[in-house]
């Protein structure tokens, strides 16, 4: 059997953590031949709850689960880490200004970036789920100068999957018939789910839908505001679907995207599509041989350009705000 892969999950006692850990331990993150060693990072008051989850993980007797460590120390949690899932973050509470939110998250993602820099394995891959995910990833990345910048990514796969599902329902097709969906920009309400490059039945999804009013007035806002709709319906934010998306993101990064298809990941921009270099923005990416590449050469029409630019502008504002706070 292969050597165990060290997978660190922060916010392990939270609701996404609970939905995520069992799937990782069962082999769904890295495949059925790869044993995993879990590291759970939590804040001190939540350690006991994390221990409870670890007891349940033990009770599943997963053949691929090589061990579980629980800690409130980032250095310990990221020592030797191969896959880091940064889920724990400070949520926005009532009356909190954006600056306060960014500062509170800086207090989490700066030390975690430093700990990754200090102890991570050569092949470390980082996925930030905790919001504001793109900018939290930027903060962590800027404190890990020895780790290749492209290893820091943020999650827009849930948005991608939501877009697939909405489109499949509209067209009365299976999600498996849709390829080349793209989320551009920030994981926020400004994100742009793009139907002009998605393919279904030999056409672009925009052609298949043939209803610009639905596309602009229904599809885009439904995907972008789906998180709020889930909170409204469930009384709690997306958890199982977020965990599922995190699994999809890492699985594809490690194992590759299917031939002829791509996925959406928020990755450091290399300047592609006019997105300023260094911003962690969502792009269409192809994964192969354990690496991802931004899909090149797509034509961007005026409608898409405006929406991509608006989301990227928001990312630049967030970057400027954390820079002003001295967090990057
Ligand atoms: P919960 O509040 O249930 O859990 C968060 C956990 O993080 C808590 O157990 C808390 O103790 C822990 N935590 C806080 N600070 C920590 C630190 N410094 N180190 C380690 N652990 C720490 O939130 P949950 O519903 O699990 O959501 C987690 C994050 O995911 C939130 O920021 C949420 O906004 C974000 N989401 C991101 C999504 C995405 O698509 N990128 C979608 C789902 C979700 O909204």
UniProtKB/TrEMBL annotation:
Pfam families named among the record's database cross-references: Ldh_1_C, Ldh_1_N
The enzyme's E.C. designation: 1.1.1.37
UniProt keyword DNA repair, yes or no: no
Record-listed substrate binding positions: 92, 98, 131, 162
HAMAP family: Malate_dehydrog_2
Molecular-function GO term, any one: L-malate dehydrogenase (NAD+) activity
Domain Lactate/malate dehydrogenase C-terminal: 156-322
Signal peptide span: none
Gene source species: Kutzneria albida DSM 43870
Full protein name: Malate dehydrogenase
Catalytic activity: (S)-malate + NAD(+) = oxaloacetate + NADH + H(+)
Active site: 187
SUPFAM superfamilies: LDH C-terminal domain-like (SSF56327), NAD(P)-binding Rossmann-fold domains (SSF51735)
Residue span(s) of domain Lactate/malate dehydrogenase N-terminal: 6-146
Residues that bind NAD(+): 11-17, 105, 112, 129-131
Top-rank lineage group of the source organism: Bacteria
Role noted for this protein: Catalyzes the reversible oxidation of malate to oxaloacetate.
Gene field: mdh
An example Gene Ontology biological process: malate metabolic process
């Amino acid at each position: 059997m292969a050597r165990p892969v060290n997978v660190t999950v922060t916010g392990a006692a939270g609701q996404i953590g609970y939905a995520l850990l069992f799937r990782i331990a069962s082999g769904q993150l890295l495949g059925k031949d790869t044993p995993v060693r879990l590291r759970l990072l939590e804040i001190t008051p939540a350690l006991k709850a994390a221990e409870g989850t670890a007891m349940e993980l033990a009770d599943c007797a997963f053949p691929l689960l090589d061990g579980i460590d629980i800690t409130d120390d980032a250095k310990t949690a990221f020592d030797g880490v191969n896959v880091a899932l940064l889920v724990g973050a400070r949520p926005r509470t009532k009356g909190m200004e954006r600056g306060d939110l960014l500062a509170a998250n800086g207090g989490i993602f700066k030390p975690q970036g430093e700990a990754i820099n200090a102890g991570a394995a050569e092949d470390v891959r980082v996925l930030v789920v905790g919001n504001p995910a793109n900018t939290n990833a930027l903060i962590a990345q800027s404190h890990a100068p020895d780790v290749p910048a492209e290893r820091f990514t943020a999650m827009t796969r849930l948005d991608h999957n939501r877009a697939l599902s909405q489109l499949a329902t509209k067209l009365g097709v299976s999600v498996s018939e849709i390829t080349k969906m793209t989320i551009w920009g920030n994981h926020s309400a400004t994100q742009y789910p793009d139907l002009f490059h998605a393919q279904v039945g030999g056409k672009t999804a925009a052609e298949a839908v043939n209803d610009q009013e639905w596309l602009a007035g229904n599809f885009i806002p439904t995907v972008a505001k789906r998180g709020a709709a889930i909170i409204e319906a469930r009384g709690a934010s997306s958890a199982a679907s977020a965990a599922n998306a995190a699994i999809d993101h890492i699985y594809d990064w490690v194992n590759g995207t299917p031939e002829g298809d791509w996925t959406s990941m928020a990755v450091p921009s290399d300047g592609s599509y006019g997105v300023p270099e260094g911003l962690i923005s969502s792009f269409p990416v192809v994964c192969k041989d354990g690496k991802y590449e931004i899909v090149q050469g797509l034509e961007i029409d005026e409608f898409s350009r405006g929406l991509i630019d608006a989301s990227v502008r928001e990312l630049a504002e967030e970057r400027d705000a954390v820079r002003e706070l001295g967090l990057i």
